[in-house]
Amino acid sequence: MTRFRLVFASAALLAAVGLFACDSPSSSGGISTGDTQSGVDIVGSDALADDTGATTADDATSTVQDTGTGTDDTAVAQDTAVADDTAVAQDTAVADDTAVAQDTAVAQDTAVDPTTLDHFSFFVTSLEGLQALSGSQSGFGGDLRYGEEGAGAGLRGADKICAELAEMSMPGAGAKGWHAFLSAYETSGGQVVTNVDAIDRVGDGPWYDRLGRLVASTKANLIATRPVDADSAIINDLPNEWGVPNHRPDPTQGQVDNHDTLTGSNSNGRLYSTTATCNGWTSVSTSSGKPRVGHSWPRSGGPGGGGGGGGDMNPAHWISSLNESGCKAGINLIETGPPGNDGTVGSGGGYGGWYCFADIP
Question: Worst-scoring range by mean pLDDT, 4-13, 234-243, 258-267, 275-284?
Fold first, then answer.
């Protein structure tokens, strides 16, 4: 009986121990909620799973829904205000607006102001200059239109030639307002209706040659046999557009007989006659009259004196000395004796040159 009780007691003890073993943690975990380990709150595996699920799901939602910055916020990427707005790239207002590049007003306005140039307002047209502009070794003859047309074409063409020769010699000087010292006339129905006097075309002075030497200070001093107050170096040998004395244009050569200079004028600088201007400086016909000339340097003594002559000869006068034999283009630089009657503007000793005067000294 006692033995039976011991066995029963042992069985009961074993049962109790087994029951406790079922509630104990295993090697895989099984820590009760609320227990702690190393001072860290321990949660049950179920709670961890549930909480993890919530956290993961919520965080996922947070990640997916918080696409305002990543996915939906395409303001930077899709807002093509910078890329598509071609206001900068395509607006060619700067590149295509060629107002700066093509507007040559600035470039052209950089022309020299003629009022700032050295004194230069008188010259005799050189033979070389007339040959270059006419394209002929014989020069222009009595036709000085130089591309101009209509009334006054001869005078306007001569003015233009003066300006071009001045520009060649002194850049910017072509804008000084050049006028040929030539008298002419206008006709209507075969009748002369307007006289043009050379002296009225040249302004009031003073005038200087290409090297700044005085030719005349006033119109009153200009109208004389030789300009009254001209520089002594040029008074008896009026220079060309380069300032070279016309009697010896090539300093390496001797003097030449080139004194005859077209004017169409009397000694006062006014129209000599209707037959003295080669039909208003528009004709090279030998039937266009006998142009009146002055002498750029006094022609006195020796043979010659000019073809055609004329009743009132003054071989020293720079404006009105004699009549040439015709209006045809031609050059005669050699003393040939009286009279030279080849019908050219240079028959008496010359090449059909004329005087040029500018408005700006």
Answer: 4-13
pLDDT score of 187:
67
Give the Cα separation of 67 and 45 in Å (integer). 33
Strands 191-196 and 184-188: antiparallel
pLDDT of residue 38: 37
d(CA 276, CA 266): 10
Contact call for residues 289 and 278 (beta carbons, < 8 A): yes
Residue 147: other Cβ atoms inside 10 A? 8
Over residues 73-120, the pLDDT tens digits come to 433 334 444 334 443 334 333 333 333 333 333 333 447 899 999 999
Average pLDDT in the chain: 75
How far apart CA 185 and CA 227 sit, in angstroms, is 26
Three-class SS string for the chain? CHHHHHHHHHHHHHHHHHHHHHCCCECCECCCCCCEECCEECCCHHHHHHHHHHHHHHHHHHHHHCCCCCCCCCCCCCCCCCCCCCCCCCCCCCCCCCHHHHCCHHHHCCCCCHHHCCCCCEEECCHHHHHHHHCCCCCCCCECCCCCCCCCHHHHHHHHHHHHHHHHHCCCHHHHCEEECCCEEEEECCEEEEEECHHHHCCCCCEECCCCCEEECCHHHHCCCCCCCCCCCCCCCCEECCCCECCCCCCCCCCCCCCEEECCECCCCCECCCCCCHHHHECCCCCCCCCEEEECCCCCCCCCCCCCECCCCCCCCCCCCEECCCCECCCECCCCCCCCCCCECCCCCEEEEEEEEECCC
Contact (CB, 8 A) for 215 and 207: yes
